[in-house]
Amino acid sequence: MQLHSNNSGNIRPIDNGYELVHDDPRTADLFSEFGTVIKEPLFDKDGTPYGGGFALKNSVTGQLLDSPTVTKGYKLVNHADVFSMQGHSLFHNAELPHDNLTVIDRVFDGGRRATRQVMFNDMTWDIDGKGNGITARADIVNSTDMSWAFQVFSGAYREYCRNTCVFGGQKAYHQKRKHTSQLSTQAMIEKAHLGLSMFENHRDTMDNWRTIDLDRSQWVQVLEETLCKKGGKGAALSTDKSTRVNGKLLDYLTLRFDEESRELGSNLWAAYNSLTHWATHTDETFERQNDDGTVTELSTSRAGSNPFTVQHTRNDKVRAFLESDQWANLERVA
User: Fold this and answer.
1) Per the structure, how many domains does the chain have?
2) Are 241 and 251 in contact (CB under 8 A)?
3) Cα 57 to the chain's mean position, in Å?
4) pLDDT tens for residues 169-207?
5) How far is Cα 280 from Cα 227, in angstroms, rounded to an integer?
6) Residue range of the domain that includes 239
7) Alpha carbon of 105 to those of 12, 50, 102, 157: distances in Å?
């Protein structure tokens, strides 16, 4: 590969890859230069689609990558797209600084793996109490060949490893997901930024929520009494739980809590993140197992609904819930 200079800086070779250091997370110049990975359908010698499999190919060189074929259901997360998405999400978060950033993009193994590190140089904390400031950061780990799960980190730490540990500091948020059709990279990125802004502005609250254990049954009970409770005298008097509780919403928020708890722990912080996910992501699908063992795919949106109106309504509901007696009771457990 011939290396070039661009408006962002110089692309330089590193071990098994290339690196670009710049200051604008909305761009993905390294991948414009180097190429990104796309799925290439496979055909047999007669031109017939071969087994529904796809090879991986570099978009610039046209070279097929030495990696396993992937299936139609494999969600290929394009490095350039997800890094640009992160940058725009960051700039939409008014609570995070948008100036004095250092962005380090790295690509490895012919484009199959990539990482991004965004350093918020104006956000520094003495995490360990030793007078040594640690700069806030947000990291993305991604692959296109199933070798790495998609991961996002945010917080104040010196370094991380891909088994989810951080060194010399503290995570505000971390999630790790396989490349399946259920993967929502935008949701993970936005929640990482939300966690970082909480770390900056409401760290005591966030740290408190992380110490309060919350098991699944407790969460279900609280949801049944609040967000998932149906209104009206008839619903209140009914002995039929299905008429008193919004079952689809309860299933979804419980599923979200399970997902958050895997990485954040079964605590109030995971509950909070499940609520913010529901409030901001209005058009997701999820699977619910029925009593007879069959699986139904459901949507969190209604046909014809305006997403901005839905987000506004849900944010109001979450805000009211966080001010409710039920949430206050959970906070008092610590």
Assistant:
1) 2
2) no
3) 26
4) 888 888 888 877 667 888 889 889 988 998 888 888 888
5) 15
6) 204-331
7) 11, 35, 10, 18
